[in-house]
Design a protein that fits this description.
12 strands; 12 helices; alpha/beta; elongated; about 350 residues
Length: about 350
């Protein structure tokens, strides 16, 4: 028999342990360590005592599998890539948090890629998909302004699930919100309170997304005879945008008594401008948002808004992504799952000043 291989010293503090370190410490071959840690069935069974010794040694040394190496071998990396339209939007920040929690519940970690306008569009997907060898990709937000990214996604070897695509062409299994239902719920609430002069502040979002604005216009035509002149304001999806939009609306000869907005972010700006101008909410002005981001329940007054069912949408997406990743034969045909928002009535809405209600 060949002489036993000399054992290497234990890894130094801070060094990343390898399979060879585990093999040396457990007095087994590296191939045995690989088979134990991969969980792959072998033709020659590994003794239970050996298996437990390898696992105990791996835990003691703090071994962590290298997802890149696993991806190169074609094995699951237990990574989900997430391509995000805009990190700066609080809505997507909360969606990412929900997505990370849901992924971890399925045994996956998340790798983030960013496609904010002005960045090199090929870099985020390359880092998420090619370098990290993710098992699936989740796309957050309409990214039609990045055609190269979409081309890469269409040719992806891993499944892609898309969320909040708005009016984008349906190219991947997708999930979204019934935006029309959310806008109508807020407007129904304002009309029930007695408001008739209702304006709309519409966020300028990538991809020519005007579904919520169109829903407002259709509602006003069918219920209140049309949209008064000057009652639609478009602005950047920022608090500053909402602030400036309200100042223009309140300068109209017949200003509105209520404001509906297409996002909570601009609704917060509307609340700020109303306070600055002395248009007390809700006594002189009612405000309704859309999304129910975390800050919405902590504004003064707390914001009435249509709640995006983010947790349910994210859960659907991760379940689908994991299922597709684990079954290469499963269909990846485009499809759309729609979720209905829920109106959350808080303190920013009341009957118009001087009404009998």
């Amino acid at each position: 028999m060949p002489p036993p291989r000399p054992r290497r010293p234990a890894t130094t503090h801070g060094a990343v342990p390898t399979m060879q370190d585990i093999a040396d410490a457990a007095a087994v071959s590296q191939s045995t360590v690989s088979r134990v840690l991969s969980g792959v069935e072998t033709r020659v069974p590994i003794a239970a005592a050996t298996r437990e010794r390898v696992l105990a040694t791996a835990r003691r040394l703090g071994y962590r599998p290298n997802p890149l190496a696993r991806g190169l071998r074609g094995a699951s990396t237990n990574l989900i890539g997430v391509v995000v339209r805009d990190f700066s939007d609080p809505f997507f920040a909360e969606a990412i948090e929900a997505l990370v929690k849901e992924s971890m519940a399925h045994g996956y970690n998340v790798v983030l890629g960013h496609v904010h306008p002005g960045l090199e569009e090929a870099i985020p997907l390359t880092s998420v998909l090619e370098t990290r060898h993710t098992d699936a990709i989740v796309l957050l937000g309409d990214v039609r302004v990045h055609p190269q990214l979409l081309d890469d996604l269409r040719g992806s070897r891993v499944p892609v699930v898309a969320l909040w695509q708005g009016t984008s062409p349906l190219e991947f299994p997708s999930a979204d919100t019934d935006d029309r239902a959310g806008i109508q719920a807020g407007l129904d609430h304002l009309v029930a309170l007695g408001h008739r002069r209702i304006a709309f502040v519409s966020a300028e979002l990538p991809g020519d997304f005007w579904v919520r604005e169109a829903a407002y216009a259709d509602f006003m035509r069918s219920r209140l005879g049309g949209v008064p002149a000057g009652y639609v304001e478009r602005c950047p999806n920022t608090m500053a945008g909402g602030d400036a939009a309200l100042r223009r609306l309140l300068a109209l000869p017949e200003p509105p008594t209520a404001i509906a907005t297409s996002t909570d972010l601009i609704a917060v700006g509307v609340l700020h401008a109303a306070h600055s101008l002395g248009a007390t909410v809700p006594d002189r002005l009612s405000v309704v948002g859309f999304d129910d981001i975390q800050i919405s329940s902590h504004t003064v007054p707390a914001l009435t808004t249509s709640r995006m069912p983010t947790a349910r949408i994210v859960s659907h997406a991760i379940n689908l992504a994991v299922a597709l990743a684990r079954d290469p034969a499963a269909t990846r045909e485009p499809g759309l799952e729609i979720f209905t928002p829920e109106l959350v009535v808080r303190d920013s809405t009341a009957p118009p000043a001087g009404s009998a209600g």
